[in-house]
Structure to design on (398 residues):
């Protein structure tokens, strides 16, 4: 009989979004006439920009003739895309080498797969509340997690405690679910902490494109020393609406080195390269053509128009909550609005209350960790119409 990885049994019973889907389905089955508005799962709704579509089509056409046909591509991504990503970082004043860029099918896979590189015996520091992928993938590997509180007292931006040691640190900024974003000084403290502890930072910048405050860092490599202690994960899912198209990238600097137990130099870049070339066969040529278009002037300006559309939704949500004296977090440098449930309600109770009385679906904060228990997340990824309608319904509620 095979022995299974029983760490899976320590995971919470259901992944957050399946539980939400389950409750919404149960409701719509009982109330087929009620129209539910979904501002829950962080999925985009606007179509891809026309420049991206046009390049995706060209990618398809290339496969139609023997001269331009593509089979297996480089596991790390085609040079044209790796270079486009290097240029993109350069425009934000970060210099990278193309071999530090690994193209993938998304940041969820990479933030999960990166755990392959680490021994079970590590102290993993994860903020609470947090994107559930970091927690569950470490639990699957049987790793111990130390949680660090993100709460109203620290504006949902926890800072390092130099008296506590960690080996692996997860940071997501702008944050999902709280929308909070670290500034340069705050992020520098984390880099200093990692360098002092010989730790590695796993930095998720999936929402960098939503930053409107130009003083905020859009990459951890805006901080001096970060190339010696951080891996950065990014994705075109939120930047360019690629949630269904699938493409992301991970930056593993060549300067990121540690010592093995035998005292030999470990290049994390070489290790990740080995991991990817062994277990991953690259993103489709077609998708990479579309992804490269995101970084062209035309493609980027179309992406920015879509982001602006979502930011208008964020304003609508924040305005209407603020009018009700509910203080919101996020929404400015993030597509997410995070707020305390009214009347001290528990977040799953508030979820049911909103679903039953306003037919609006949000995300209960409890799904992201214990500090989210009394909080709620709404996303700005809906249409203007549905967002306005949802907020009108909520407005009438309490
Ligand atoms: C949406 C999201 C991602 C992107 O995941 P993909 O697999 O690239 O779609 C990554 N990190 C966080 C925190 C997210 O919310």
């Amino acid at each position: 009989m095979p022995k299974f990885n029983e760490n899976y049994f320590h995971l919470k019973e259901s992944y957050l979004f399946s539980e939400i889907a389950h409750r919404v389905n149960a409701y719509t089955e009982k109330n087929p006439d009620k129209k539910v508005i979904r501002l829950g799962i962080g999925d985009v709704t606007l179509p891809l920009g026309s420049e991206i579509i046009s390049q995706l089509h060209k990618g398809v056409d290339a496969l139609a003739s023997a001269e331009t046909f593509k089979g297996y591509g480089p596991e790390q991504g085609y040079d044209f895309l790796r270079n486009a990503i290097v240029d993109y970082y350069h425009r934000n004043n970060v210099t990278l080498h193309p071999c530090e860029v690994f193209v993938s099918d998304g940041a969820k896979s990479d933030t999960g797969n990166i755990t392959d590189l680490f021994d079970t015996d590590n102290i993993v520091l994860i903020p609470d509340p947090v994107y559930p992928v970091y927690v569950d993938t470490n639990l699957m590997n049987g790793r111990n997690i130390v949680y660090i509180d993100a709460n109203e007292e620290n504006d949902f931006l926890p800072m390092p405690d130099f008296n506590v040691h960690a080996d692996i640190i997860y940071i997501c900024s702008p944050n999902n679910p709280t929308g909070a974003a670290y500034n340069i000084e705050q992020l520098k403290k984390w880099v200093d902490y990692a360098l002092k502890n010989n730790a590695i930072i796993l930095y998720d910048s999936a929402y960098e494109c939503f930053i409107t405050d130009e003083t905020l860092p859009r990459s951890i490599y805006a901080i001096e020393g970060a190339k010696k202690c951080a891996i950065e994960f990014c994705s075109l899912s939120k930047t360019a609406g690629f949630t269904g198209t699938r493409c992301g990238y991970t930056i593993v600097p060549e300067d990121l080195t540690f010592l093995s137990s035998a005292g030999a130099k470990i290049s994390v870049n070489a290790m990740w390269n080995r991991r990817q070339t062994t277990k991953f066969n690259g993103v489709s040529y077609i998708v990479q053509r579309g992804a490269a278009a995101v970084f062209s002037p035309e493609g980027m300006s179309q992406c920015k128009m879509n982001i602006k559309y979502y930011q208008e939704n964020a304003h609508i949500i924040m305005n209407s909550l603020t009018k009700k004296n509910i203080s919101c977090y996020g929404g400015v440098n993030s597509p997410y609005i995070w707020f305390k449930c009214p009347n001290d309600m528990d977040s799953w109770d508030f979820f049911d209350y909103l679903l039953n009385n306003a037919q609006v679906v949000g995300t209960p904060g409890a799904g992201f960790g214990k500090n989210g228990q009394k909080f709620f997340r709404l996303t700005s990824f809906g249409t203007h119409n549905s967002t306005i309608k949802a907020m009108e319904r909520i407005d009438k509620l309490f």
Summary: The domain at 6-47+299-397 is CATH 3.90.1150.10 (Aspartate Aminotransferase, domain 1). Residues 297-323 form the longest helix (27 residues). The chain has a mean pLDDT of 96. The chain has two domains: 6-47+299-397, 68-297.
